[in-house]
Amino acid sequence: MNFFDTHAHYNDEKFEEDRNIIIREIKENNIKYVTVVGYNIESSIKAIEIANKYDNIYATVGISPNDLDSQIDLEKIESLAQDKKVVAIGEIGLDYYWNKENKDLQKDIFVKQIEIANKMDLPISIHTREAVYDTLEVLKNRIKVKNSGIFHCCPLNIELIKEAVKLGFYISFSGNVTFKNSKNANKCIEAVPIDKLLIETDSPYMTPEPYRGKRNNSIYVKLVAQKIAEVRNMELEDIAKITLENAKRVYKIVD
Fold this sequence. Notes:
Layout lengths: L2 E6 L10 H10 L2 E7 L3 H13 L3 E5 L12 H7 L5 E10 L7 H18 L3 E6 L2 H11 L6 E3 L6 H9 L3 E4 L11 H7 L5 E3 L21 H12 L3 H16 L4
Parallel strand pairs: 1-2, 2-3, 3-4, 4-5, 5-6, 6-7, 7-8
């Protein structure tokens, strides 16, 4: 039984001291593939370095809505996206929880990075927080996404999921679906078509129960898969296989 963690941040400083050990351990624990996700120029470069060091790791490059005070060099993102291990542009999107004062800039950079993804024939990885309406408005009315992509750590919002699926996007669930105080988790899990379902950890964040509060890592993606299996009344092995194949499809990975 193998798993695909579609969104992790082994480029984060929280893994600086034991990154190699953790990556070895996750491979030994049947995590077949991991995507290390960039969120600014520095982390995107680091994601590529890690991906090129390990055959089971892929990378994404992008500038997140929470990193627009750092270097916004879209030419650099396009250049980095040419690396053979880069499978998506991301994480990109809108975040009005942390940043309300620069909404127009967020939307502008979001659109421009979708343009890069379209040009490079890559999918996108979307971060959206308290910005559901504007995120959908961009995707519906401002620019057509050529290769669809992923709503990463998807907000537990039924309407968002329905609209995202209509647009051809995949829905990725993280440890938040296991939280005891999580609202709508079961309904949201049930709402995703099986061929659009993905799992992730968002390591080192969003650690699932019963390890909430500890540093997350890709081994715990199994707990997300287990939650989905329970809600959908399916075998864990089937969820593992389906989500792995879905991830390979959206990222265009061929064994």
